[in-house]
Amino acid sequence: MSHLLKNKNLKELAKIYDWVSMCTHCGNCKYGYEYGPTANFAAMLCVQGDKFNFDSYRGSRGKVSLARSLLHNRIGWSDKVAHVLFTCTSCGACQQMCETDIKPWILRMFETLRYEAWKQNVAIPENIKAWSSTIGTLYNPYKEPHEKRLDWLPSDLRYSMPSKAEYIYFAGCTASYRRKQLARATVSLLQKLKVDFTVVEDEWCCASPLLRTGQYDLAAKFVEHNKALPEKYGASAFITTCSGCYRTLGRDYTMDAPEGYADKYGKMTGVKVLHTTHLLEEMLKKGEIEFTGSFNKKVTYHDPCHLGRHAEVYETPRNVLKAVPGLQLVEMYRNRKFSFCCGAGGGVRGGFADYSLETAGKRVKEAEATGAELVTSACPFCYTNLADAIELNKSPLKMEDIVEIIEPIVRRK
Amino acid sequence: MARGNNEILANLEQIVGPEYVSNEEADLQPYTWDMTWAEPRMPDYVVMPKTVTEIQRVVRLANHRKIPVIPYCNGTNIGGLCVPEEGGIIMDLKKMDRILKIDPETCYAVIEPGVSHAAFSAALKATNPQWKGEEFSKGFEFGWGVHPPSASVLAMAINHGIGHLNGRIGINSQLMSSMEVVLPTGEVAKIGSCAYSDSWHSFLPLPRMDGLFTGWLGTTGIVTKLGVWIFPIRPYKDVLTIAAASAEDITKYMVRWRHYSLCDEVTAVSWWLAQIPIVFPYSPKPADAPEFFSYTVISGWSEEELAYKRKMWKEVVEKERAKGTKLYDFEYPPEAKKGRTELPSRIVGSTKNYSKSCGGGIAWPGTFAPCKSWPILYEKWKEIYIRHGLSPATRFTDYQGAHYGMLRCMTPFNKRDPASVQAARDAMVECVRAGLPEGMLPYKPPVEYQNELNAVADAGYLYLMAKIKDMLDPNNIMNPGKLGIR
Fold first, then answer.
1. Contact A27/B343, CB-based, under 8 Å?
2. Secondary structure of residue A62 in the 3-state scheme
3. Which phi and psi angles does B395 have, rounded to 5°?
């Protein structure tokens, strides 16, 4: 009898064995599909399966099977196991397709598997190990000094930010250190819209890279620290332009398992978490935004996995884009819940840069096929990967975040 | 951890390229098991060929080294067919996923083994130049079953899978029209009209050599291309429903209705199968609930045609009622209706059913049987299932005008509970044993069913089967252990 829980050393994984064992091995997860009166969609959505071929890499079935094989003591840990686990971008496409009761637990199970992997003598990607070794003291995965976190902010603003405000603009590590123009554009946008906000010097990494790569112990102090910020600054909400931060603050900090990690770190209560596009959509609906110019370009929107499939925010960014005068929005074949990941998530950009960029290249080709001049998104991390792939592939496309499109041409009514 | 030996691994790498072969347990483990009770068995290698030539070379190597080869597309069958009984090479054919031709005039398509139902259906629905712009231009369809979108069309067809057109035009193996096969010894053979030209429209009037590779569970060769008939989608559809007091009553209605050959499908499910989730473990149905619920799908080219079929169906129901057959009206849930008319679907409701048992096991005694034996076998199966603590979640489906039909019993079980697995396996094997004298034959049979079949088979039939197998596969490398004859 080979379906019994025999390996009790994998304690964290064994805790969710009830859910892991609910996978029927049916294979719904391996392919994107929908048919109905208005739908005729079929495409490969699993980034990892698309690249690495074997069933071990394809959809959740391969990794659920891996979890069971480990728990049943049918296989042991190896570098190959680590490769299967850490080449998944956690895009959630398999979870989207799953119809069994394991569905809400799939991403949590991947992260739990990674948690267990850290305790084994297996080949965790070197670059993940490298940033993990310093994130505890630098509070960002880019190995940059914490003191420079707000260097993106013009000095006149840096020292004039209010000590109390309704919103805390949570820039996140990527915008703070690598895509500073997005953070600057967001602040300028919030100012133009006369939003009561502040930017805080003691923002730490939201812990997304830690949670997504299964580093539960290290994540604890980050969650604890950031959760305390609203009270410290008298804020009632976080607002962020980063989809990764939005997913983490909005779900991991506030929801119990399997959607979030409140079961581990306690629940953040009384604090709203908004993506910038939420605020824009709401103000547009209320008629509080006036466009001062137009954006006469054909644009396609890439759904960030953390905003889309993880948080089911699909229409908000589109509604914002549709409101922009002159902007012609065209869709890629794979969109919304059937989007194709940019290839950066789940620690993959850091761990396997070449594969990550190859994936982004596939997405760029798909964007090109729409005839768009510009690809936009709502996440600095997707921005980074797609922009790099555009450059690498000498694509004629341009990349801009939604805030970059909106900011120059709006004012508060 | 790696398996096999490095020399063979190096040979395989030379053939398909290093990125398309693995002997690492982490890569091999998803190929060790499936939905059924089959005990996981580890292969030694997995290869992903991209061309027929690569398949030929792998097969020749396997012959030389006497290594089993197990053809595999997505592993979604419910018969343990791809579980490697004796280890060896899993030949994962997913990379061969081209739709090579769609001929809308002759109504056939040519596909490779890796073509999924999702991809094939999307391509067919987008094809219908004949009626482009007209109301009829809804594309083409094949026999869509209820399965994961990733499931292989080719694998399903050559293993006698069923589809939604089985009442009108037969099961999916009856829709095959030509094939290309790599023989176990490495030669390539074309069978049917494609052996003479590039037209893949028919096996007839040639000798039916496709039979050497159909229903053999991948033990006689690797089908690398398949021609299949496709059908224009009829724009008008409806689902008609009726319930019955007993298996005998529902069978009388179904057989009479099917003799008119007016529907695409007629199916009945027992009360236990109609519940979501399937009742597990067994508990009795309410005394006043019908024993069976039936739906039939009708289609047509006009509302008038549909109205005529509805009228005929009502007449059948009334005539049966007049004879004393206990039939009851009932409302079909909209979601269920959608699932019958918008195909192929994902295995939505049913997957949830199995999953609820918290152990993820599902199997069935899935059989082809003469329709008149349904009520007899149902009563036998019901007794067996209840004795094993399982619900008789039974389905009858007619194939092609009441000549034969499907009888099966969906059986969820808890893989984490050895007693649950044993009860399910025992019940299912006992059902097969009970059914064989009534003309029932299991399809996509797990090894346990094959043993039951062989125990009562005509000796000459088994002799011929073994002779054919030996002739085609002298080293018994193709999916060994599945037929129970070698």
1. no
2. helix
3. -130, 135
What's the pLDDT tens digit per position in B129-183?
777 677 667 899 999 987 788 899 999 999 999 899 999 999 999 999 999 999 9
Q: Is the ipTM of this complex over 0.90?
A: yes
User: Is A127 touching B (CB cutoff 8 A)?
Assistant: no
- If one looks up domain A136-278 in CATH, what number appears? 3.40.50.1860
Coil, strand, or helix at residue A2? coil
A87 in Cβ contact with A21 (< 8 Å): no
Lowest mean pLDDT among A187-201, A251-265, B32-46: B32-46
Residue B408 DSSP SS3: strand
How far apart (Å, rounded) are the C-alpha atoms in residues B28 and A54?
9
Same fold for the pair A136-278 and A289-412: yes
Q: Do residue B27 and residue A54 have CB atoms under 8 angstroms apart?
A: yes
Residue B345 per-residue DSSP state: B
**CA separation for the pair A32, B52 (Å, rounded):** 27
Q: Count of residues for chain B?
A: 486
CB-CB: which of B92, B118, B343 is closest to A31?
A: B118
Amino acid at B110: V
Give yes or no for B360 touching A (CB within 8 A).
yes
**In this structure, what is the dihedral angle of CA atoms B337, B338, B339, B342, given to the nearest 10 degrees?**
130
pLDDT in tens, A292-335: 999 999 999 999 999 999 999 999 999 999 999 999 999 999 99
pLDDT tens digits, A155-206: 899 889 999 999 999 999 999 999 999 999 999 999 999 999 999 999 999 9
Q: SS3 of A361, please?
A: helix
Q: Tell me which of B77 and A234 has the higher pLDDT.
A: A234
* Adjacent-strand bridge partners of A289: A412
Q: How far is B98 from chain A (nearest CA, A)?
A: 13
Q: At residue B483, does pLDDT exceed 60?
A: yes
> How many of the other CB atoms lie within 10 Å of CB of B400?
17
**Any A CB within 8 A of B342 CB:** yes
CATH of A289-412, one of 3.40.50.720, 3.40.50.10700, 3.30.9.10, 1.10.10.10: 3.40.50.10700
Q: In what order do the strands lie in the sheet with B21-22?
A: B21-22, B45-47, B89-92, B69-72
User: Which CATH code is given to the segment(s) B236-445?
Assistant: 3.40.462.10
Q: What angle do CA A203, A208, A211 make, to 5 degrees?
A: 130
Tell me which amino acid residue B353 is: N
Which pLDDT band holds residue A377 (cuts at 50, 70, 90)?
very high
How far is C-alpha A63 from the chain's CA centre?
Answer: 20
Global pTM value = 0.94
Angle at B463 between CA B458 and CA B466, to 5 degrees: 125
